[in-house]
Amino acid sequence: MEKPIYASLSSIGAYIPSQIITNDDLSKIVETSDEWITKRTGIKERRFADDSEATSDLATKAAKLAIKRANLKSSDIDAVIVATISPDYFCMPSTACVVAHNLGIVGKPAFDIAAACSGFIYLLFLAKSLIESRAHKNILIIGAEKLSSIIDMQDRSTCVLFGDGAGAAVISQTQHKDLSILDVNCASNGQYQDFLMTPGCGSKNPVNDRVLQERLQFIKMKGNETFKLAVKTLTQDVIEILEKNNISKDFIDFFIPHQANLRIISAVGDALSFPKEKIALTVQKYGNTSAASIPMAINELYEEGRIQKGSKLLLDAFGGGLTWGSAILAFNGESLA
């Protein structure tokens, strides 16, 4: 009888663009201020990629680090899946195909998913299923965004929120359940699709003069409505996944929520009574990087030496769609020397 196979997070990596955009920088472009942005979001700065960098470039750099840390070669990767809402190209090829080419991965599945800020949770859900069905041994998952290419720099309510970056992970087989991805929950509700969306340039509103004049090619958000629903949904989702797996929050070493807004993170953390030292917080430095935010936060904890082999992580995200999800997993990578 075959031994059970589990999926595990065997490595993490990230790439963060070097160009820092401060709140004061944005105040020279739109009517805003450091005080206004900080009070409402907790964000002090974010990173923008260079004009010459595409989302695939950010993703490739993060992926190379994740593969190296997994002690693998590109040829060991069985599939490449990228979560992004800012792909290199509108329809095709997928950003994953470009990344696979950049890494020298040929003849393997490569595709994108669009789950907005919940993208990395959805990637874990897919990778766990593919690994535990024995379809693949090593899957490269990447959350990557160049949101600076799809934000409206004339809209002060949204342009101050977002930044660029990429986070990558290798999901591999393990026979050790205590070092595995224990559970992943993904969900959606399209009833609230207009809370957070890019209305233009798809089949609903094809590119034309009106779409461009109304700037529908950029991110649009109903901020107050999104905030209220995000806090409620994120909190309830964590409660449900902990109860489902009969796990106490004391079992968790780090709570790593999607980095959208400090007020949302604080509200959820308070509702769940998580100690502040257990809550990952990077939004003040990087802003909202959508699908990249959770792997970037994991990577930061890892590079600080706070995440070790066996560390128990609780992930939680909410994004456009609307989509949301949570995951409980152990880190199964080697600690940094």
From TrEMBL:
<feature type="active site">
    <location>
        <position position="117"/>
    </location>
</feature>
<keyword id="KW-0808">Transferase</keyword>
<comment type="subunit">
    <text>Homodimer.</text>
</comment>
<keyword id="KW-0012">Acyltransferase</keyword>
<dbReference type="Pfam" id="PF08545">
    <property type="entry name" value="ACP_syn_III"/>
</dbReference>
<protein>
    <recommendedName>
        <fullName>Beta-ketoacyl-[acyl-carrier-protein] synthase III</fullName>
        <ecNumber>2.3.1.180</ecNumber>
    </recommendedName>
</protein>
<keyword id="KW-0276">Fatty acid metabolism</keyword>
<dbReference type="GO" id="GO:0006633">
    <property type="term" value="P:fatty acid biosynthetic process"/>
</dbReference>
<comment type="pathway">
    <text>Lipid metabolism; fatty acid biosynthesis.</text>
</comment>
<dbReference type="GO" id="GO:0004315">
    <property type="term" value="F:3-oxoacyl-[acyl-carrier-protein] synthase activity"/>
</dbReference>
<dbReference type="GO" id="GO:0005737">
    <property type="term" value="C:cytoplasm"/>
</dbReference>
<feature type="active site">
    <location>
        <position position="288"/>
    </location>
</feature>
<dbReference type="GO" id="GO:0033818">
    <property type="term" value="F:beta-ketoacyl-acyl-carrier-protein synthase III activity"/>
</dbReference>
<keyword id="KW-0275">Fatty acid biosynthesis</keyword>
<keyword id="KW-0511">Multifunctional enzyme</keyword>
<keyword id="KW-0963">Cytoplasm</keyword>
<keyword id="KW-0444">Lipid biosynthesis</keyword>
<feature type="domain" description="Beta-ketoacyl-[acyl-carrier-protein] synthase III C-terminal">
    <location>
        <begin position="242"/>
        <end position="330"/>
    </location>
</feature>
<feature type="active site">
    <location>
        <position position="258"/>
    </location>
</feature>
<dbReference type="GO" id="GO:0044550">
    <property type="term" value="P:secondary metabolite biosynthetic process"/>
</dbReference>
<feature type="domain" description="Beta-ketoacyl-[acyl-carrier-protein] synthase III N-terminal">
    <location>
        <begin position="111"/>
        <end position="190"/>
    </location>
</feature>
<dbReference type="InterPro" id="IPR004655">
    <property type="entry name" value="FabH"/>
</dbReference>
<feature type="region of interest" description="ACP-binding">
    <location>
        <begin position="259"/>
        <end position="263"/>
    </location>
</feature>
<dbReference type="InterPro" id="IPR013751">
    <property type="entry name" value="ACP_syn_III_N"/>
</dbReference>
<dbReference type="InterPro" id="IPR013747">
    <property type="entry name" value="ACP_syn_III_C"/>
</dbReference>
<comment type="similarity">
    <text>Belongs to the thiolase-like superfamily. FabH family.</text>
</comment>
<dbReference type="Pfam" id="PF08541">
    <property type="entry name" value="ACP_syn_III_C"/>
</dbReference>
<keyword id="KW-0443">Lipid metabolism</keyword>
<dbReference type="InterPro" id="IPR016039">
    <property type="entry name" value="Thiolase-like"/>
</dbReference>
<comment type="function">
    <text>Catalyzes the condensation reaction of fatty acid synthesis by the addition to an acyl acceptor of two carbons from malonyl-ACP. Catalyzes the first condensation reaction which initiates fatty acid synthesis and may therefore play a role in governing the total rate of fatty acid production. Possesses both acetoacetyl-ACP synthase and acetyl transacylase activities. Its substrate specificity determines the biosynthesis of branched-chain and/or straight-chain of fatty acids.</text>
</comment>
